[in-house]
Specification:
FAD-linked_oxidoreductase-like; 10 strands; 317 residues; eight-stranded parallel β-barrel; 18% strand; globular; two-stranded antiparallel ribbon; amino-acid biosynthesis; TIM Barrel; 40% helix; Methylenetetrahydrofolate reductase; alpha/beta
Length: 317
Amino acid sequence: MKITEHIKQAKGKTLFSFEIIPPQKGRNIQELYNNIDPLMEFKPPFIDVTTSREEYVYIDKEGLLDRKITRMRPGTVGICAAIKHKYNVDTVPHVLCGGFTKEETEYLLVDCHYLGIENVMALRGDAMKHEQYFKATKGGHSYASELVEQIQNLNSGKYLHDVINVEDKADFCIGVAGYPEKHLEAPSLQTDLKRLKQKVDAGADYVVTQMFFENKKYFDFVEAARKIGITVPILPGIKPIAVKRHLQLLPQVFKIDLPEELIKEVEKCKDNKEVRQVGIEYCIEQSKELLAAGVPVLHYYSMGKSDNIKAVAEGIF
């Protein structure tokens, strides 16, 4: 079922969902199941599965370093199929511009269609670790709006090199990212909102926000989006602080601000066990306010761990 259909069928009730990351190559998928299992009691209608960019690794060959390109966390579509089969829940694979040609994207989407996966999250993706700025893959897309357009073309039966007349066309529900504190490369929030509208105009069906820690920023973002004609559902993305290092890491990586009250409480903590509890309690209060505001979905970034997300969900659902 499409995400938009899940929201419509909920009739105003706020749904619970979360995002996971694939295990590294060589790790057992059972580790992933062990983190999903505790969250299934909250009846998520869908689970997002991230896609990682390629990266360079250096292999020592007789004293010389040989640079090879690889993906440390492959298998997004396979994991989506496995989760869908095991838990009877809809899955949302993340589809990236970075690291994929248009042809590779088409093949991935065809696989999703064959597997009965009806939802995809269309993202530009980040720059590679050695790059200062994002560079489009040769033969790939530069912007998420272009990726959305390709997916919509496939929904219309229009493939890259042929228009194929078929009865069984794809009909993907397309999610895109929104940034309440603007994308790190955008010159202003207003400019970033215009880019979001381009993605929606290209065919995006819903928006999931980058994590934020002050609800006012989400509410202001939604209001500003509505003013420029973005009418699709906007789902808040939430993450509980888990370790003290997050005070530096999250603002650095995601270019977001943390509220002073949260910073002060984390700084008081003697160890990460106390930090985790502070993060859970803060996230519960944040979630309660969003729930009272009637958001369609509370979408949690689990980063591969579920114990704190479970603790938050127990306080909300």
